[in-house]
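TICKET #2291
ISSUE: user wants both folds in one file
ATTACHMENT 1:
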Amino acid sequence: MEPLLKVTGLQKHFPIRKGLLQRQSGAVKAVDGLDFEVYPGETLGIVGESGCGKSTMGRLITRLLEPTGGTVEFQGKDISHLGVSGMRPFRRDIQMIFQDPYGSLNPRHTVGTIVSAPFRLQGVEPEGGVKKEVQRLLGLVGLNPEHYNRYPHEFSGGQRQRIGIARALALKPKLVVADEPVSALDVSIQAQVVNLLDDLQDELGLTYVFIAHDLSVVRHVSDRIAVMYLGKIVELADRKSLYEAPMHPYTRALMSAVPVPDPRRRGVKSERILLNGDVPSPIAPPPGCRFHTRCWKATEVCKTQEPPLLELRPGQRVACHHPENAEGVTVPGTRESVEITKRPEPTTPAATGTEASAGTETPVKAEASVGSVAEVPTGVETSAKAELPVGSVAEVPTGVETPVKAELPVGSVAEVPTGVETPVKAEASVGAVAEASAGTETPAKAEKPAGAEAATGPEASAATDGPAGTGPEGKASAETDGPAEAAGPAAEGDAPKA
């Protein structure tokens, strides 16, 4: 089924201007990258805290606001930047029910004038006349048709909201954006308006985008629900999955605040998740995951990398590095790349991430995470350049002839097994130690920065044929089986004679 409405990367940044020349000094990122679809005949609920961008998103969909970025497609046509004349044909199919029933009606106009305004603006002459059609609409939303000549101040809050609903339904639209239509009403009136919207959807085949912050109302009317936080959607799922097994920590915290009307739970203390701190400013949202400043599961990756909105279960998309209720779900993790290149020889190349068997000559590009070990099988001749994170170990099996250039960070150790003949050039950071196992014949050239230590003792004195002399610069020269060159910051070559 093709979506009736498709939103991709929708953004709205309100500029902040200061000074005499009104230069822009910043922007309020009210909506910052939304992606979702609405299908014909369904109700998509939008929930979130006050100030998260729900109402701004609704005004962008109906093109009452010009988007800063992204696209809004209605029935396959991009309406993101259409002008007044270009949007006129779409106004019949896209209508909005506003949040404030007191401020959305002109107090100087009668009810008949307010409800009949869409017919005049679109040049539509309904069958039987405008007055008859307006009276029919008033009866449809539960008002007396005799109220045609009354003014808005003569009605209660629930009745005014019904007038706004009648105006939105005048041109028989395909999509209705309801911006918190029951938030300003009493509980009994809320139930009447919600039931009215359900009945009209069944009778007229309407599609709703229902914006609210009352999770109980949203659960009653919605087929799918999107949870917004600080201008972004953090979770999008069907009603059953979202309420029974929420995956985002923010969604779980919202669900814990909903009272459960169950007499059997009397005296049972519910698990209430209290979030610390306030919602960050949309002027300067935090880096990485925007919820990490209040999340009890936040780690370092949450502070640096923004999680994408991924489908972890069928029909349930979540933007979180550490989702809740994720048993049996594979969450894509962060990986670091380590490139290993082979000297140019005409042999069969191997694919990325495959293992090389003994005797093969293979250029390999591997991805290794922090703390992992890069292994090379026996008999593989490989020229490698590896960038190893802190705490990683590069292991070379016995019998491998491998000219290696390793860049070792602080605290890393390069280990060479016994019997390996390996010309090594190591660039050691401050505090790093280069260790050679016993019996290793290794002509080495070490470039040691200031403060680095050359290991002495069993690791360095093994297989030494002669005594070690100490030069006047504090450098030790040893007679070993192979020539050794020490390049330090103060001197190069052998130690000077006394």
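ATTACHMENT 2:
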Amino acid sequence: MSTSPPRIAGAIAASAAVHISRDAAPLAPSSTDAAPATRRISLALEDVSKVYPNGRRALADVDLVVPDGDFVFLVGPSGAGKSTLIKLLIRDELATSGTVFVAGRDVSRLSRRDVPRLRRRIGIVFQDYKLLPHKSVRENVAFALEVTGTPGRQILPAVERVLALVGLTAQADQLPSQLSGGEQQRTAIARALVHEPRVIIADEPTGNLDPLISWEIIQLLLRINELGTTVLMATHNAEVVTALRRRVVALEDGRVVRDEVGGYHREY
């Protein structure tokens, strides 16, 4: 049976005391863009719609609450609105109406300077890896810290820690072209983790992988979730979703049509 989320205002945790990289500067405080603190919530959308200039409605009246520590599958056919929802969460785009909260902050009210700081609270994993081809595994992961001004003495220990977590210590000096698809995706996951983000957003992370390697990536994401990081994963992989029996949010034509623990398809 589908669940209907409560109104989000009043449910968002506005506290800045969140688990993020020790080197990330805090977002500038605001007294107007955060809802009252009642419980810790990673991500939320309240009555969100997105209409593009050509008139195409990508999302319509979406309500979604993702508490800290959840593992959520975002499913639906191509064109359902999954990619648009993710773009709103990482503030690649702004909603036409409604409110998007990340780590208790209304993303539409963030200054341009605060947007990169917000993104350091979010680890993003893409289907096509987006690795720098002429940098080694270690250098790809380190680069994510270098561009944010992390002190040099802190970079190597952080990189080695996440490479060990994803099982790539032995491949640290290899280039992306020397890696398998699964190893490239694990490198991308390490890069997403190195800031110690509050939430991982994975957009079709197994889309380019064979079934066996896909399961390895899913098991890695589950382990990361067990360590306390919220995971939101967009996927078409019905077998994985149905086998794991986690929370499933289904989109169709830009609307949430199902939000429940279960399989890929609605169960009767």
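RESOLUTION: both attachments delivered.
EXTRA DETAIL ON ATTACHMENT 2: Residues 211-226 form the longest helix (16 residues).
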